[in-house]
Amino acid sequence: MTEAFLHRHGRHVHSHPHSGTHRHLLRPRPSTSGASDAHAAGHGHSHGLVDPSIKRSREGLRAVGLALFVLALTAAAQTLVFVVSGSVALLADLIHNFGDAATAIPLAIAFVLRSERAERVAGGLVVLAIFVSACVAGYEAVVRLIEPREPVALGALAAAGALGYLGNVAAARIRTRAGLRLDSPALIADGDHARADAYVSLAVVASAAAVALGADVADPLIGLAITLVILRITWQSWLTVSGRTHHHH
To answer: Quick check: pTM over 0.85?
Structure first.
């Protein structure tokens, strides 16, 4: 029967050898053992345990904040490369990255409010952002078909692409893990969002390599292929957010 007298205080579990009422030094209020203790717990009497919704809110905010920090570092490093090389193609990528970071705002608000509805709205905005990524990649590809890119500052382009890839993969991992742990479709979708951007960055590296090798025509084709990949991610994320599927990575 000793389990009945086990008490949890934060992380510490201790047992009381006797039944009946007993006092805790730090908590003047008597706490009783056995059934009445379970009864007290039912009335919101908790021994220093954090409310699950607050805990979830904190964990969600931590994940959103950490991913945002990683992406901010990435954008800062890319800005440096842009300043050094003055590449216009890079500027487009940068603007896009800063726009992407903005999806953290509605998600953070949803976690602060601890509102499932706000989370769903945030998820919808994330899916929209992924779709915009696809449009940007597609537009770039079409423009490059019409006028091939000059092989200017290819090294800088490849370096910025590599940085973008690494940053987005890290952000995707943080978001997806937390999203699965907290069962948050919006956070999972934002993980997909970062993954989509990682593909965009990878396309930048591949394009630079193609132009460097003189295979200019491969440049826009890579862009179109990436556009299709992102459109597929958009669809998967929409299914996740609208609750039709729970996909696990």
So the answer is: no
